[in-house]
Task: structure prediction
Amino acid sequence: MHCHVHTIPIDHPGDVSRLRLAIENSDIRASEVIAILGKTEGNGCVNDFTRAYMASELKALFREYLGAEKASAISMVMSGGTEGVLSPHLTVISRSGRASVDNLRTDGEKAFAAGVAKTPVITPAALGREEQIRLVSEATLAAMSDAGITDPADVHFVQVKCPLLVSSDFADNDGATITTETYKSMGYSRGASALGIAIGLGESGFTDAAAAAGLNCTDFQRYSAVASASAGAELDYCEVVVLGNSPASEGDLFICHDVMTDALDSGVLERASASARALAPEGFEIVQILAKAEADPGGRVRGYRNTMLDDSDINHTRHARSVVGAVLAAAACNPMIYVSGGAEHQGPPGGGPFALIARRSAR
Result:
């Protein structure tokens, strides 16, 4: 098995021209693409239709090359919001071959590996509750297996695209939903997804979906260190993409992670780079950065008050995404990075998981 990662800039929310060119030039093989993580230039909120627009354009593109059935198997994770310096782009993950216990590396090393899985439909009544947590935990394990990863410690980032609630869901379910506010439903869905990942990976003693459901959006001290969840109205189930390192994978890519303690934690890049140097003492180059961002629930950063949670004009997820995007872009000298807002149970309050995909230097 050999996994590849390509980052492709986009000029508008439906721009697949450079991706098409990469396929036509055989830089990317359409038949090997398993997941696409996109940053589109909408507001990242309930009515962000740039996510669905890009997903629709991507599906249409791959139907041309693969047909409808195979195109639908690709995990499309579109995250809206490129505030500040963040640059709209696609991160395309492809894989040749399949993971096999009969074909492991003999040098004792591990390389970047990716796996995908989907949950069944998450009904409006189940969103944010025990059932969603359980389904995501099961899908996380399935995606791990698909990636050829057996040790949860080798998982460094799990990206979930999860559904949200719209106003018609409240009328159709007669008060059975976890909330009657569409924006709040995004947080509940992201939180349930993160808790499901934590259970699937056995993080911090998480074992039971029923117990975890009582923590959702209440106890933010309980979190996953590798979960990243993005909610959208363009799907009614969860896409789960597991990224890690596996002895069943070949190639020069690898991934490592750390956790941002707050929105200004630029030191996270150096900490993750130190982990990367331990894995690649011969040197490496950064291929992509993946991170979560949120406004601290206490309304302060390093003791100083901010107004992110009080702004009625701009949602706090947009403020946080802009800040963290600028901090990490400055540290990495690259604004074309994946930063997603809304980090309920994804890293500590006010912080968030951070992952670095890198390529080993030639030995």
